[in-house]
Amino acid sequence: MKELIQQVLALKGGDWTSVLTGKLGFSAEQASSFLPTSLKQIFRVVEKGKVDVGSMLTGSGAKDILENVNLDKIAEKSGLAPGKAREGLEQLVPDMLSAVKDKAGDADGLAAMLGGDAKNVLDQAGGIAGKLFGK
After folding, report:
1. What is the pLDDT of residues 70-93, one digit of tens each?
2. From CA 94, how far away is CA 111, in angstroms rounded?
3. Is the distance from CB of 57 to CB of 126 less than 8 angstroms?
4. CA separation for the pair 75, 53 (Å, rounded)
5. Residue 48: partners with Cβ closer than 8 Å, 6 or more residues away
6. Which end of the chain is flanked by fewer CB atoms within 10 Å, N or C?
7. Can you spell out the DSSP letters for 36-75?
8. Tell me: the pLDDT tens digits for 7-19?
9. Domain extents for the chain?
10. What's this model's pTM, rounded to 2 decimal places?
11. pLDDT, tens digit, 9 for 90 and up, residues 22-40
12. Helix, strand or coil, per DSSP, at residue 78
């Protein structure tokens, strides 16, 4: 998971920081903490099976992610009020999902990058992912 977070942040972190600081009024420090913490929480939601893998990889799972991430934890680690953390997620989750799909490719790629329990969850969702990716 750590490697995937680093890869996604290397690809899109600068753009997302600009959105957070320029559009939403985050400080640079808040943005630099918010981004990896948010991605980690998103991946934890996937690992726990709370978000359909297919919808995550197609980008349509933003609502499910927003309903299942631990906003209080993201806010606390980022020095933000929970409402501000939610605002940041609402702004970035669709693009975050797109970036993860670009890096992972498909459900098997996501499982390999997340490792551990994610593989079992994704294996259980294999029927859905198989239909989605034509496997």
Report:
1. 999 999 999 999 999 999 999 998
2. 20
3. no
4. 25
5. 121
6. C
7. HHHHHHHHHHHHTT-S-HHHHHHTTTHHHHHHHS-HHHHH
8. 889 989 999 999 9
9. 2-133
10. 0.76
11. 999 999 999 999 999 999 9
12. helix
Contact 121, 47 (CB under 8 A): yes
Mutual orientation of helices 2-18 and 28-47 as an angle, nearest 10°? 140
Instruction: Indicate the Cα dihedral angle 113, 92, 40, 43, nearest 10°.
Output: -50
DSSP 8-state secondary structure symbol assigned to residue 106 = S
Q: What angle do CA 105, 109, 115 make, to 5 degrees?
A: 145
* C-alpha to C-alpha distance for 14 and 8, rounded to whole angstroms: 11
Return d(Cα 17, Cα 1) in angstroms, integer: 21
